Amino acid sequence: MSITRRSARRSVRILGVASASAAVVLGLSSSALACNIRDFKAEAKCDGNKGVIVVTDTDISGTPATITVFLQNKGGVEKQIGEQEVKGSAEGTPVTFPENWKPNASYRVHVKAANIVDEDIENGLTAPATACKTDSPTPPASSTPKPSPSKSAPAESATPTPSASESSSAPATAPSNAPSPAAGSSNLAETGASSNTGLIAGIAGALVVVGGGAVYFGMRRRGARGNS
């Protein structure tokens, strides 16, 4: 079967379209694989009780890049927080910058990768409105009210309190086991212990002698009368 000129022209045209399509696809693929600013993402996070800024590189081409973070202060003054190098990957390669950021603080993140990227991450970075927790939180004030001095406390006694020396010098009264004298027996005690005891005893003795003599003489007299 012979090939006509018309068929040859059609084949050449098809090959040309296919080649052009392949070139476009390869061009788009190479553009998609190239490092791009959209491959970088910045976040302000908390690492325990400390603040950090994490920049993640998802560049699948693995082009080495330099990340620089700046704190934007009022009046347009910037302070460089740190600078690190990173090599991206499909799953993402993070780099961490220690920074105890304040709530709502603003940062500028610059990326430079060879001659491909040399610009800031779009819209920059704004820290969260809530700061990281501190190591030792301040304990809340106690809700229990402190007792106020009582106004109804009795006044101090006017009687002076004896000092320790006075109380220790006073002799202690020893408890007595002797029974206390009965009421009305004080006169008897006084009579027995009076200084006139000897005189009374002498008088009593004399009375006994007189009485005995009287009895003796009486008995003799009675006997004499009986004999007569």
- CATH class categorisation of the domain at 37-124: Mainly Beta
Radius of gyration based on Cα positions: 65 Å
Q: What CATH architecture of the domain at 37-124 would you give?
A: Sandwich
Average pLDDT works out at: 75
- Beta content comes to 15-25%
Order of helices and strands: HEEEEEEEEHHH
CATH superfamily of the domain at 37-124: SOR catalytic domain
Low-confidence stretches: 22-32, 164-172, 181-193
Describe the structure.
- With 228 residues, the chain is α+β, with helices and mostly antiparallel strands.
- The protein has a domain at 37-124: SOR catalytic domain (Immunoglobulin-like, Sandwich), CATH 2.60.40.
- The chain has four helices and eight strands.
- Strands 3, 4, 6, 7 and 8 form a five-stranded antiparallel sheet that branches. Strands 1-2-5 form a three-stranded antiparallel sheet, with no helix packed on it.
- A hairpin with a 2-residue loop joins β1 and β2.
- The longest helix is centred in the last third of the chain and has 31 residues, at 197-227.
- The protein is rod-shaped.
- The protein starts with a helix and ends with a helix.
